[in-house]
Design brief:
Helices cover about 0% and strands about 55% of the residues. The chain is an all-beta fold and about 140 residues long. The radius of gyration is 16 Å and the shape is globular.
Length: about 140
């Protein structure tokens, strides 16, 4: 659902056909919805399914052309938004809880209790952060 910022008036809504979950929004309004039924890309009122089961987190890359998606099985996948085709995927060993894009040009993914820096193509791990035993201060 899109609402006007000034008064909250509903401008547009799309029935996703599934309970909603985490969402990501590109700077020009493309919406990615993670849900129990899969991943949907929504643009101009039309929903387009993407073949990723049980998505748990998503984030657009530097532009709307790429989308990073994590799933409950611990996989991270880079998706081309124009076609919905995956162009890189890697197993991370734990359910993905968060995905982000760094301005430095790589994906940042939390899976299980570890932080991963993933290459832009989504096919390799550049760095792994180990869990800390002490709280940050």
């Amino acid at each position: 659902m899109t609402r006007r910022a000034l008064d909250g008036q509903t401008m547009d809504s799309v029935d996703t056909g599934m309970p909603g979950g985490p969402v990501a929004v590109s700077s020009d309004g493309l919406v990615a919805v993670c849900g129990q039924g899969g991943l949907l890309l929504i643009e101009r009122g039309a929903a387009h399914p993407v073949a990723i089961a049980q998505p748990t987190a998503a984030c657009f890359g530097a532009d709307r052309q790429s989308l990073g998606v994590g799933d409950a099985q611990g996989h991270f996948t880079s998706v081309e938004t124009a076609t919905g085709a995956a162009y890189g995927s890697i197993a991370l060993g734990g359910a993905v809880g968060g995905v982000g894009w760094s301005a430095l040009g790589f994906w940042v993914v939390v899976a299980g209790n570890r932080l991963f820096v993933v290459a832009p193509d989504g096919a390799s791990i550049l760095h792994t952060g180990e869990p800390q035993s002490a709280a940050l201060s």
